Description:
Layout: H1 4-22, H2 24-35, H3 42-56, H4 61-72, H5 75-104, E1 111-114, H6 140-153, E2 157-160, H7 169-178, E3 183-188, H8 195-204, E4 207-212, H9 217-224, H10 228-241, E5 246-252, H11 257-260, H12 263-272, E6 276-281, H13 297-313, E7 317-320, E8 338-341, E9 347-348, E10 355-356, H14 365-369, H15 372-380, H16 397-407, E11 410-411, H17 420-455
Parallel strand pairs: 1-2, 1-8, 2-3, 3-4, 4-5, 5-6, 6-7
Antiparallel strand pairs: 8-9, 10-11
Amino acid sequence: MNSPKKFISKVAIKEGIRYLEKEPIKNLPKLIDWVGKIPMLDSQKKQYDSVVELWNDEDSCWHTYMEKILTDVHPNIRKKFLINFFINSVIEGLKKANYNKKKYDCNIPWAILMDPTTACNLKCIGCWAAEYKKTDSMDYDTLSSIIKQGKELGIYMYIYSGGEPLVRKNDMIKLAREHNDCVFLSFTNGTLIDEEFAKQLQEVGNVTFAISIEGFEEETDMRRGKGTYKKVIEGMDILREHGIPFGFSTCYHRKNEEVIASEEYIDLMIEKGCYFGWFFTYIPLGKDAVTDLIATPEQRKHMYYKVREYRETKPIFTMDFWNDGEFVNGCIAGGKNYLHINANGDVEPCAFIHYSGANIKEVSLIEALQQPLFQQYKKYQPFNQNMLRPCPLLDNPYMLKKMVHDSGAKSTQPIDRENVDDLTNKTKEVAEKWGPVADEIWEQSYKCAHCKAVNE
């Protein structure tokens, strides 16, 4: 039951959001003040204090970034995201999830990544979905049931991948309407975005996108097929014109790292309207995966520094799925912060870890979270005390091998049923080469942080 203080805080924030509809930049300080009165976890309070500090620094790129959100995002979407993301997902959801972690003695994630379908209109080199059957899909009732069960546990953030989720456009809109207290983000190749869909997105207000792009035209079409880049840019233009927030999702590998790390690329993404950029490094999934595309240690190191540079200089929020382990205490998979449910219903630790001991069509969500493989994750996370070596596949392959064997989890790749020993053998050398580089960066970063603390 909600406490009177909690209820009053929610009412105050909603009143503040109404003020934003009139004069957003002028009235944001009032909303920030009201949010500060809500009871928060220590981690939430630190994040809140950081936002206040950034807004108060009018010369920072982050002040510019927040002004962009207040002026360029469609009012209905801005209102929905402020309530659903900050109140439901971040503030109330995390408290409820922490309670359930203790109650059920298992990880409860902040977000669920799920695949409505494996069908796709493209065939990209190195895509994890290439190892699933192209006929797999989860029906509407199953998708909605996952969300309902998730909300009971405190989960209000839902992410779609695939396949191409926009093959299921109508169901995406229907789910957004039914669960209008949640936030939905869809990874998409961007080629199926059109004017009619954009109008529906304005109306529901709680759906955003991470659009896959591999660099400029040459790099994107190399992995995704000729003509894809132009369609992606058209999709971005449509979303921007309708005030729908979105970001880019880029896989960096040996052949495109220099391009996607460049200032020209980031500036183009900002110009096209991106609010965030999510970088992923190439993972060689499947027995026939192209291992030559794996980024070198020097390239991964370069990405580490470039992403941090852009956070300080560009009005866009850049993230690196692997190199940002220091901010989330290592690996976030296995239900710690997120999990993946593929289109066949297999509940996997991560989109890149295709092993499972539970299927959502056969068990409840909480039972899936309690499966032996996920308990192995909970037992051993973080997998390395160097947070720049967070991944049990890419950085600590011996740990993935151990957890899969000890839990009895099975391969969820119906095409080749890749054995975990074969998979980890492909990344063993990569981990050994990255280890010394990561240790050097980690040690230097620790020294810099210590010196800064002493000087302050």
